[in-house]
Amino acid sequence: MGQKTAGDVLRSGKNREEKMRLLKTKQTKKLTKKLNRMGKKGAIKKHVTDKLRSIKATKSQDSRKRVHNIIDDYDIDRNLQYSEEQEDIIPMDMLNADIDWEKSAFASMRKRKLEREAAQDAMEEADVLESQKRHFEGTLEEDREELLPIKLKDEEETAAQIAEEAEEEGKLFGEGDEEREKDPLEGLSAAEIVMKRRELLEEQKRLIAGYSMALVSDPQTNIFKLRELLNLCSGGSAAHPIIRETVQKYYLKFLQLCEKLFKKLKPALGAETHTNKMGMVALRAVCRMVVAAPHFNYATNIVTAVTKMVMNGHEESTKVVCETLCELFRTDLHLKISLFAVKAVHFIVKKKIQAVPPALLTTFLSLKITKVANEDKKSGKGLLIGKKLRLKKERGMKSRRKYEKQLERLSNDMKELDAAENLSTKLKTATEAMKQVFHIYFSILRRMPTVALLQPVLEGLSKFAHLLNVEFFSDMIKCMEELIDNQDLSILDTLNCVNTVFVILSGDGQALNVDPFRFYKSVYELLPALPFQKDHAVRRKLCALMARCLDKMINARRKQVPLSRVAGFARRIMLTCVVLDDICALPLMAVTRTFFVSHPKLLILVETAEEEEGGGSVMYNANHGDPDSANALRSDATLELSRLAKRRHRLLSSIGRNILNGVPSTGMHRVDPDAVKHACR
Questions:
Q1: Can you tell me the distance from the alpha carbon of 500 to that of 477, in angstroms, rounded to the nearest whole number?
Q2: Which of the pair, 298 or 9, is modelled with greater confidence?
Q3: Contact yes or no for 360/345 (Cβ under 8 A)
Q4: CA 644 to CA 579: how far, in whole Å?
Q5: Which residues pair with 150 in a beta bridge?
Q6: Angle at the Cα of 155 (from 149 to 156), degrees rounded to 5?
Q7: H helices then E strands: how many in the chain?
Q8: 449 falls in which pLDDT band (50, 70, 90)?
């Protein structure tokens, strides 16, 4: 196919813009590029440059005008928006029939509304004009069609044919105009306007209540009403400011009502009274709210209010509040609301330490904090600073290149160190929370108000001892020694004291010059008392805690503990497990097996009497209070292990046979190491 000529282009049925675009030849493009290159080099004369600039300005005139129009429209819209100020509604009792309200300041609301409608109509007309196609001089209108050119007296003109007019009569008479809807507030007096507003507000309240009840009763069927409810609150309705204010007031009134109800809880009224029942319902409601939405605006107010309820002496409310705090500590990921709750408890302990229930302090055990910021550890920053100072002093003894290279290396190390010391927000929050918790624990240990508070404090110190600052280690160990010397201390409290001490000594406290023999002796004396605990749950808890203490005392410090002491603990543990039930004996035997693994020389206890030199083993002195001098290393433990190997519990009997056969890792007498590790916990 050949190229199109100018006549072919003009004969085509395309619009004028398309025809002009096709008529633009390659020569015109080349000329434009050439002029641009010459303009950059400065090879065009001034009058030519001015002419080109005027042509470009003419082409961009419409775009600039459109930008100015957009800016003007934005200014008009912003001024209208800022002028919409809501005035206070005059109460009904202040209305006076003698006053002409139509000429008063109250009628300004109606006046502004009419002005906004007029401005909106003007903007709509402007939008219609803007959307219409604009015609320039020399162009044809939409109702005309361009025909072939004709020649008249050496002049070329373009002939046009007028298209048929459609529905001319409808356009002349303007049948498309619509009457503006009548304003429902038009013609109303000031009192009627106030009443209309109140009716609208009540109608929206009923609508919100109906949607909410439908969603709660049957969410699957009425899920579409959630969209309507969101539209009401987010601006889908003309009355959305009123609705938003109503919803906020509903929340605040609901919380105030709940606080008023649960503050009436009193143990003297009885659990079956209407006041106490309504108070418990309100207390559970706000507790569920703060657990489900800890980011709620009034969450801190709720925590402060419910925490104070533990001091009213009502057992059920105290239980609900403590369960709420435990759940809050377990589920809080950012620890912000946990920090606020800890501060609220600290305030109560500081004011009324004598009346604090132990369950309130037990809630701290649910805190999910395993790491805090240790400000004493600078990770060698001081050493790098010293190296930098020495390097500057030795600058004259080194070449410039070598000095700059070493200085750059030190600067990079300092930057990495600073980046590592920048703590995250969560770590800072955890550090502040643990400072508050330890402050509570230390104040109770210092004052010692009641023995009942000692158990949760010691349990908390046993769990969080690895988070203590180094400067408190010596004082803490001294305090634990004084508590253990107290004869009235329970087995659980004694074990918590021992566990706290050995957690300190197994971490940063290894450098302390402390002899922990009295703690070994205390635990050795407590072992025979385990089977005499009547409550099975308490006995099981004591055996699990005892296993953890023994693991820290012997396995974590195996280089500092003599073999005779390890043998003494192993013999007494096996004798105690013989009279314990299977569930309680399992963690103790699991930790005893780890003694034989970490101390291979301990296998002398399972050798038979015929294999030993001297004709027999020495009798183990089970009544002696010192494990080092109880002759345990020269005794025989096969009798106790044989009895434990015949137990009904499969894992317990397997551990007994494994120790009896020399702790093999393979073969028929091997045990699963994961199962043993799980049993030690």
A1: 8
A2: 298
A3: yes
A4: 10
A5: 157
A6: 15
A7: 28, 2
A8: low
Rounded-to-integer distance, Cα 620 and Cα 573, Å: 13
- Spell out where 141-181 has E strands: 144-152, 155-162
Please state, in angstroms and rounded to a whole number, the distance separating the CA atoms of residues 318 and 298.
21
Q: State the greatest distance between any 2 C-alpha atoms of the chain, in Å, as a whole number.
A: 148
Q: Is 536 helix (H, G, I), strand (E, B) or coil?
A: helix
Class of residue 556 by CB neighbours under 10 A (exposed 0-12, middle 13-18, buried 19+):
middle
Distance CA 588, CA 577 (A): 7
At residue 156, what are phi and psi to the nearest 5 degrees? -100, 125
Closest C-alpha among 341, 365, 366 to residue 429: 341
Element holding 161 (H helix, E strand): strand 155-162
Tokens of 201: 């507000």
* Confidence band, pLDDT 50/70/90 cuts, at residue 588: very high
Closest among 615, 550, 606 to 576, alpha carbons compared: 550
CA of 473: how far to CAs of 245, 288, 476, in Å?
55, 40, 5
Under 8 Å CB-to-CB from 520, ≥6 apart: which residues? 553, 565, 627
Phi then psi for residue 49, to 5 deg, are -65, -40
Q: Which helix (H) or strand (E) holds 162?
A: strand 155-162
User: 166: closest CA among 147, 146, 135, 143?
Assistant: 143
Show the DSSP H helices in 425-535 as ranges.
Answer: 425-447, 454-464, 473-484, 491-506, 517-526
CA distance 233 to 596: 70
Give the per-residue pLDDT at 647.
92
Question: At which residue do the structure tokens 């300041």 appear?
Answer: 105
pLDDT reading at 352 higher than 70: yes
CB 147 within 8 A of CB 158: yes
Name the residue type at position 476: M
Express each pLDDT in 118-140 by its tens digit.
777 776 666 655 555 555 555 55
549: part of which helix (H) or strand (E)?
helix 536-550
> Can you tell me which residue has the tokens 């080194």?
398
Take residue 117 and report the two structure tokens written for it: 């409608």
Report the candidate in 370, 267, 274 with the shortest Cα–Cα distance to residue 314: 267
CA contacts within 13 A on the Cβ side of 223: 3
Instruction: Tell me the CA distances in angstroms from 147 to 14, 161, 357, 583, one per residue in order.
Output: 12, 7, 101, 105
Lookup: tokens for 511: 């450098």
